[in-house]
Amino acid sequence: MLISSTIAFTLPALAVAQQQKPLGATVQDWYSKAKSYVPSAASAPWSAGAAKAAEHNVVPITLQNWRETLTPNPMASTEAPEEWMMFVTGGNKTCYGQCGKVEKAWNESAAILSAKPSPPNLAYLDCEDQRILCNIFAAGAPSIWHILLPKPQADQSRPATTIRLLGLDPNSTSADIVKIHATKSWKEATVYEGVFHPFDGQFAKFGVNVPVGYALYAFSVVPSWAFMLVISFASRTLMSRRLPAGGNARPTQAHPGGAPPAG
Asked: Pick from 15, 77, 105, 148: CA 20 to 30 A from residue 180's CA?
């Protein structure tokens, strides 16, 4: 009877002690038990490795660093032009939300290209973040800019920089991007020689490519109704200057007989 009485008093005490356990600890126990029953999903080492390689080997191009970055390395042992592949991407405003898949393909291709015996220099330009620079370059997304930067000559003159623009579509794969370098398919593209050429175009030669880029960016962010308002104001001002004082032109009085009196 004594043992039964002890057990009868002990069981309620244990129940009370269990109820006094902190709620956070109880929830954590439940979560740990539930998590143990869920099979862990296998990680994607290829995607993680590609993103890591892209992070360490791809240089972001910005308005502040593009001149210094896209410059031949003076310590290079070869006299051949320095090869660059610049990936141009964007977001909802500059790529209409169509660059997500091709960005993943670029990250994967960066890992492959970096492992090549003679890899190209890799860079990317985000037009969503660098809209002024993309206007300076007149760059469209998604695309690959294949650039050959020549080394300066002995007399410090600089030969022309060869740029080829290779368009990508939203379904382009990493194999498509790697092939540009591996098979030298960039040679099939036409050399770009437009006025927006960042090194040898007319705007760059006259030193106005940056102001032009700022102007184009300003036009792109000004709403269309503001242009209509300016045009309406300008036309009203022009018409008011053509009218005489008072706002109405005086009618010319006709003389009888169709001719003015003599003398």
From this structure: 77
